[in-house]
Design goal:
The chain has 407 residues and is of the alpha+beta class. The chain contains 11 helices and 17 strands. The protein has an 8-stranded antiparallel sheet. β15 and β16 form a beta hairpin.
């Protein structure tokens, strides 16, 4: 079993060791003060890991430390993996970005769009056009999440049993029937709204490939890249390495909470947030993207396809705040566009934290994050396992990593 390791001194990679030490001490303080259970941070330049830190615990009560082989629920960092799977099928000519979704999932024919009202008084109209594959990849399909509590359609999702995005006990195919009978928040392609779209993509992958999502991802992505621990569930032998899931308490501390169930193959395979991985696994996935779709002689995508995935697809090169649905416009999305299941920096001067032009990546609800900065040939991943709203980890992390760049 390969584990992530430091490969080069920070100074040799153009990083300031004192700034990195300052970063480590700051995040260790979050652990020591009880706001994080523990963390792993890896910073690489030119594909070589120049800074690797583990601190705190993967299981606080058991006293088990964070180690380089700790397994993490990566939640929404699953989405870029799903995008790669879709783009493989596009390259093979088995799928097109402009295909209507109902070509593969007939239940999505004749979508209805929300007009007004709430609950039983919701009024809809036929959509002007179909949902396309590219709408799902860019979260512009008009779908939503039930846990938003911001729009009447969100409430309809909850009434349909979709508080956690999947009806209890349903599989991926059965869940599509529930999604499809609910109205869209807006006309496809006209706004951005983070949503269940990647679950729909997961089902399309199954239909087009004739394989369950987990089998396709394992065969076409994980095994070729040597992501030996990653997947949609863990084996008994992996269980002790899985980090405990924590939630935030009223006083800003943390307490154990149920996490994504991973012991045993799940009935619902989520292309939106169902995967687990080690830092070594995700480093190899990032390296494949950084190198334009290839790693160690194995090519998953062409360089042009990776470039397409990681550029802004919002109309007029607008950012997420401008093109986002009204319920997203209050967020810190200035200067960020969106590609295929990754955010993309289009105006560094307007982002909430310093980032190079063209930087792309995504985060997970358990406070995991990754980004790839082509301008600085930099890749970063941060792993922990806590759901928090009070602790603003990512802007601080991005700022302090950026401060460490000296060459």
């Amino acid at each position: 079993m390969a584990q992530l390791r430091q490969e080069v001194d920070p100074g040799e990679a153009g990083l300031d060791p004192k700034a990195l030490d300052r970063l480590d001490r700051r995040f260790a303080q979050h652990v020591d003060e009880g706001r994080l259970p523990g963390f792993l941070l890896a910073v690489a330049r030119g594909g070589r890991v120049a800074h690797l830190t583990t601190y705190g615990h993967r299981n606080v009560a058991a006293g088990l430390p964070v180690e380089t082989d700790t397994l993490w629920r990566i939640y929404s960092m699953t989405k870029p993996v799903t995008a790669v799977a879709v783009l493989q099928l596009v390259e093979e000519g088995r799928l097109s970005l402009d295909d209507p979704v109902d070509r593969y999932l007939p239940e999505f024919a004749d979508p209805q769009v929300y007009e007004s009202g709430a609950g039983t008084e919701v009024r809809t109209r036929p959509a002007a056009g179909p949902i396309l594959i590219r709408h799902l990849l860019t979260h512009t399909a008009g779908l939503t999440f039930g846990f938003y509590y911001r729009h009447p359609v969100d409430a309809l999702y909850r009434e349909a049993g979709l508080e956690s995005s999947v009806p209890p006990g349903a599989n991926l195919s059965e869940t599509m029937n529930v999604y499809a009978r609910l109205p869209l928040q807006f006309e496809p392609g006209t706004q951005w709204n983070y949503s269940v779209a990647s679950n729909v993509l997961g089902r399309i992958i199954e239909v087009v490939s004739s394989h369950p999502l987990d089998e396709y991802v394992a065969e076409r992505i994980l095994r070729p890249l040597g992501m030996t621990d990653a997947g949609f569930h863990i084996s008994p032998g992996q269980a002790e390495r899985l980090a405990e899931m924590y939630g935030e308490t009223e006083d800003g501390g943390i307490t154990p909470i149920p996490g994504l169930p991973l012991r045993g193959r799940p009935r619902f395979l989520s292309g939106s947030g169902g995967m687990v991985a080690t830092a070594q696994d995700f480093h190899r996935f990032m390296e494949m993207l950084r190198r334009g779709g290839e790693l160690d002689g194995t090519r998953l995508l062409s360089p042009d396809t990776v470039a397409l995935m990681t550029r802004n697809h919002l109309p007029g090169n607008t950012d997420l705040r401008t093109f986002g649905a009204p319920t997203h416009q209050e967020r810190n999305n200035d200067g960020l566009g969106f590609g295929f299941n990754v955010s993309v920096v289009i105006d560094p001067a307007r982002t909430v934290a310093p980032q190079g032009l063209g930087t792309y990546g995504w985060t997970g609800v358990a406070t995991t994050a990754f980004w790839i900065d082509p301008a600085h040939d930099l890749t970063v991943q941060f792993m922990t396992q806590v759901r928090t709203k009070k602790l603003k980890v990512f802007p601080e992390l991005r700022r302090m990593v950026h401060e460490a760049l000296v060459d």
